[in-house]
Design a protein that fits this description.
Elements lengths: L1 H20 L17 H16 L3 E5 L3 E6 L4 E8 L17 E3 L2 E3 L3 H20 L7 E8 L7 H9 L6 E5 L11 E13 L6 E7 L9 E7 L3 H6 L7 E6 L2 E7 L14 H9 L9 H10 L14 E2 L2 E2 L1 E6 L14 E13 L15 E4 L19 H17 L1 H8 L1
Parallel strand pairs: 3-6, 3-7, 7-17
Antiparallel strand pairs: 1-2, 2-6, 4-5, 8-16, 9-10, 10-12, 11-12, 13-14, 15-16
Helix pairs in contact: 1-3, 1-8, 3-8
């Protein structure tokens, strides 16, 4: 029966997913009523809630911060946590990120695997269970739809403050195979220090930029340097292969092309921001902001484990990972360069730290949680961060299986955690 259901609905799943991916749900700092994170994220949330309503489920919109879709009327609630927002597309695609393309059984587009594909698969799994009377009378399934998972999780905070009932057990279809029982914690912080900038230095930083989002390794960074002899200055550098040099309007421009990947596994990418700052450090005292480059090298450098800050660690959940993601704010006081002043500069850091807190959902406090996945792999190939969606029928089967297991053992789970 499941096989027939999948065969019948695969095309509809692909259509729904394609339409959802076509909505560029990237965070916008232009809040308005009903759209706290921008109009496109509101569109994506409304699309999902409309889809749930058309399937016959109860839906509720929490002022654009989050939504919920409920199947069944029982008090024993299983949560399914998903989100509609995505990371900015960036560069290096060989297809349009928000114009989904199906090829070789995969759907290419931003958000196909994180997290719109799992969301659509879970909705169809809920529909299957509801249509076949597989949800016990004393239970219900509730999909909680977040809209700010990629940024600051304001969505779930708002939901926790306004939802009347929270799930006792949750499935989170936003991870890798096989089932996971715990998840790394996440810490964002700005590392600041007061450093001296010298306008009399031989080499002056005029512009420095790079990085877009806290949860991805930056794949590009660049700077403009003012110096007497740009060509000769460039010759004295030992340039990594990722760095290119050009003379632009009398300025020396350094550009770095890195490899973008999720901050949970920064070792799979190449951090363009860190590479640029380390390269600038080669100028030593000749650079206007030499003291900052020295501090950055001592505290961060090209490391991905936080060892230079003394916070490297490992436990059964994995190793701590460390990502320096932004230099747009790092040197925000650079232009115009002040005359020998003390200025505060900062590096923006994301740490994914191991957590020994088993079965605790970060979004639903004190709620037992299983991590499930409906994407077999998450691929970032060089400069082509294409997120392939594995066979849609298998996605539905997996989601149905996970939820069915939870339903079958719901009384056992409750007794174990009460």
């Amino acid at each position: 029966m499941i096989k027939e259901y999948m065969e019948k609905n695969t095309a509809e799943m692909v259509r729904r997913l394609s339409e959802l991916v076509a909505i560029p749900g990237v965070f916008e700092d232009t809040p308005s009523k009903g759209a706290p994170f921008g109009k496109n994220i509101r569109r994506s949330l409304e699309y999902v809630l409309n889809m749930g309503q058309q399937m016959g489920f109860q839906v509720k919109n929490y002022d654009g911060y989050a939504g919920e879709i409920t199947a069944g009327k029982g008090n024993r609630m299983i949560g399914i946590l998903c989100h509609t927002d995505v990371v900015s597309a960036g560069e290096g695609w060989n297809t349009e990120p928000f114009e989904p393309v199906e090829k070789d059984g995969k759907l290419y587009g931003r958000g196909t695997s994180d997290d719109k594909g799992p969301l659509v698969a879970s909705l169809f799994a809920m529909k299957y269970l509801a249509d076949n009377q597989m949800i016990p009378e004393d239970a219900c399934l509730r999909m909680i739809v977040g809209t700010d998972e990629e940024e600051s999780w304001q969505c779930i905070r708002y939901y926790l403050d306004h939802a009347e009932t929270l799930p006792q057990v949750s499935v989170v279809p936003d991870a890798n195979f096989p089932l996971l029982y715990c998840e790394k914690g996440l810490l964002d912080f700005d590392l600041t220090s007061a450093e001296t900038s010298d306008e009399k230095a031989e080499i002056q930083i005029v512009e420095l930029k790079g990085g877009r989002s806290r949860n991805i390794v930056p794949d590009e960074a660049s700077c403009l340097l003012k110096c007497e002899e740009p060509e000769k200055t460039a010759e004295n550098l030992e340039l990594p292969e990722q760095v290119t040099v050009e003379i632009t309007d009398g300025f020396l421009k350094l550009s770095v092309r890195g490899i973008s990947t999720h901050c949970m596994s920064p070792e799979k990418g190449f951090n363009a921001v860190s590479c640029l700052l380390e390269t600038l450090g080669q100028f030593g005292e000749k650079l206007s902001h030499a003291s900052y480059m020295k501090q950055f090298h001592q505290a961060v450098g090209m490391d991905y484990d936080g060892a230079r800050l003394g916070c490297a660690m490992e436990d059964p959940a994995g190793v701590l990972t460390f990502n320096s993601f932004n230099c747009a704010s790092v040197m925000s006081l650079i232009s115009p360069v002040p005359s020998v002043t003390r200025s505060t500069v900062s590096s923006c850091i994301t740490i994914s730290s191991p957590s020994a807190e088993v079965c605790t959902s970060s979004s639903i406090p004190s709620a037992p949680c299983l991590m499930a996945s409906s994407n077999a792999s998450r691929v970032f190939s060089g400069l082509y961060p294409l997120a392939p969606l594995c066979a849609h029928t298998f996605v539905v089967l997996f989601a149905v299986s996970v939820i069915s297991i939870c339903l079958s053992y719901i009384k056992f789970i409750y007794s174990a955690f009460q």
